[in-house]
Protein 1
Amino acid sequence: MKTGADRDASNAHADSSPAWRGNWRAEFFDAVQTPLDVLVIGGGITGAGVLQAAANQGLRAALVEQRDFAWGSSSRSSKLVHGGLRYLKQGHIGLTAAALKARNALQKQYPDTISPRRFYLPYANRPPRLIQAGLAVYDVLAGRRSRAHHARDSWLQQFPFLRNDQHHGALSYLDAATDDCQLVLRVLMQAMSRGALAANYVAAETLLLDNAQQVRGAVLHDQLSDQRVEVRARVVVNATGAWSDRLLATGKSATPMRPLRGSHLVLPWHLLPLAEAIGCPHPQDGRPVYAVPWAGAVLFGTTDVDHDAPLELEPRISSAEYDYLMSALFRLFPELELKESDIVSSFAGVRPTFADHHADPSAASREHLIEESAGFVRICGGKLTTFQLMADEVLTRICRQLGLGKQRMQQTPVPSITSHEPNPHFLGDSDLTEQHWQQALTQAVQHLDDLLLRRTRIGLVEADGGLSLLQQRQQQLCRELRWDDARWQQEYARYRDIRQRHYAAQAFR
């Protein structure tokens, strides 16, 4: 296997064939028998970014994820690559500036995965001066003007279905939207194109320590085969987000996590036909909520509450969050006469926020934090938008521990896996070409929820979660995934249960 200086320019352009093909899982476990430079634990956007940075540096690196890639926070975000306008109100100017710089860079790097999105902020009487000032600062920090004012007639031309007497105009600004899971997979593919290794459904159970209590690797547990293997690594990186308290070099965290839950509702586009996003302050607490067109549907959210449920369980929306979002939805779009039965699905994610002095979850810091000890680095907090900034800082710590100088990071272009651009209809089976299906099926899919909730988003945007589609494609899926009828029945029941318990419109019931 080529590593470090052995890689040549042929890797500069990764081909479009899947990174996970053939007997890749067995090859992964064979490869990690040789000591690594870096073992990354956590297959979300933060871990993927660290793996990419390590691979670009020429280090021999591998990543493991105990569930599916992007299973945690990185497939349950608001799908935005943004600076965080509301952070300005909280005084976090540095965070906003860094995020805007990262947003601009990511849009250039992934133009087919991250697309501009205009956000409209309607007002009732006159444009709020505080928001106007905030948008002006936002533009200065972003390095270009995107804010605009839309008088009543212009506003109603853009959104003719809104009630005429509710809004007198709107302010707007530009940010960006993405498919967060697809972004994770693309970053992983870039890292793998440079020789890195990655496997899902592999848990890091314990750290390996030498006599001096320096971390020297980890014990990995293959969840599929129930086999365990010791993997040696010069540096282990804990990038497990909200779960990062569970694997520590010293046994106790200097900075414990404070998991916060954000939940969204998903509505059909034909009932809420938005070409761009609309935001408004929630009538209960003034926190901004947004309706964002995405993947042929509309996302509405988000909430921000402490997540007290065990992290072993898949998160889901609570009844209080559901009522909170529905009250804002009815207030923002009263003329559409939306009903609870119109909600297609919901999803909830746990933010990797670390504990601070703020009692209000919305005021908790979205900054990131890095802790390290001999042979070990822990990265927690942060945002999807700033994942490369965090990865670069982690790489600096890694190189220092390895006694290496850090080279300039280079990015490897990788073609898009699937296209999930917003369309004025649902992203159903008819919208995915056979090529898309083939690509999705060969992207390390181990379970049906991997396929329907992350490789594609059919499980979120179809009213039945794609169950009828599964019946239509049973033979193809079994052939491609090499499942017999017994495995199919097991997987079908598993997916139906996951979808009902955690992604149904009222999953709390």
Protein 2
Amino acid sequence: MTNSCCSTEETSCDASQKHLVIIGGGSAAFAAAIKASSLGAKVTLINEGLPIGGTCVNVGCIPSKAMIRAAEAHYHASHPRFDGITSTGQVTDFGAVTAQTRHLVEELRQKKYLDVVADLPDFRMVQGRARLVNERTVAVNGEQISADRILLATGVSTQLPSVEGLADSGYLTNETLFELNELPESVIVLGGRYIALELGQMLQRLGSKVTILQRSKRIIPDEAQELTDTLTEFLRDEGIKIETGVHIDHVRRDKGRVAIEAQVDGEARLFTASHLLVATGRRANTQDMGLEALGVALDANGHVIVSDALETNAPTIYAAGDVVGEPLYVYTAAYEGALAAENALTDASRKRDYTALPWVMFTDPQVAGVGLDEKQAEQLGIQAEATTLPLDQVPRCVAARDTRGFVTLIREVPTDKIIGARILAPEGSELTMEISLAIKYGVTATELASSFHPYLTLSEAIKLAAITFRKDVGKLSCCAV
């Protein structure tokens, strides 16, 4: 193992020295560089745009989760759930919060990226715009670099919707929000998925007045309505305004404020705020790289089309990470980067496997999942059954005076094997790995229900949810099975 945050387990392979050119500087690129080096290859990494580390460390996972934790600390200090306790929190210096976050970003960029590759043999890093000359040659800064294989790992960036006036509105994105030194008085957030909801709740908790405008009829519309409706209620209880079914007609600046003219379910509405945050999706960074001239296949959103072995339709060119599309997670990008490097340098064809992939949205309560939900199972022709355990049946949550949410387990009926889960719970992300391993190793609901789970832990929710396939846990005593 390496000490990189995006490290993956190494495999020993005999390979004569080959040259891998990697275009990109994020987790997929670094995992690929580390893997290629372990296979004895010469590596040239070319990066432009975001600093080394890419989205996650610079403008994504690290700064957002640090700021979300700061917002949680402030919010929970001001909202004690226990009788006899009065406390308050105060944001006295928003600039200090963002400055501390930026310091963390700089520290981790150095420690988990630059320091990791500093001593790799036959490794070179180039800062500049890369363009493919042919299937084995990359041009950068007037130099042409030849390679045996080329890996595209250029990631994604904010996708601006086509709205009149938006480009000139002075909007924020996740790439600029964390540079602010003053807390916005009010924020309109365009979007209703991961980034929009995480950052919207963070800003509301720190003291901004937040309005979320979502085009579809529900936030996170790909998930079950029970989950999205419940989360919507929780967010509105905190004062966040959520408007769905929104079609935006025009964006403009009016006396220093942003003004959005929109239709909500066919009714004309005007929304105003001091700031605008755009979180409406991501687009692949594949423009002006020479890919079209080489015939490298792209989809309608610019993502590189690859096989499950991360091969493009050009035999010497591979792609990995966010640039190939869903899933857009730092850990899947790292996994794909290492896999692509191995396949490229050893002529192997190992395939991606996301059967037991866990994912998290860091709202509070968190939304988390792994595997299939009931609708997805039905679409695949799987005879499935779902059971839902409300958190007021989980002793840990009752004792903590926080029973917001539920745990839903999905099993395949003929085999009793767990095939998925959806979770809405404070710190619900911590439950996903048990389910992920259960799916990977074919664990049944009966086996989960009979496994030891320490009393008054959140993980006991998994055991109790498994029990509900055959019993009403409300009629059982504590720890009873």
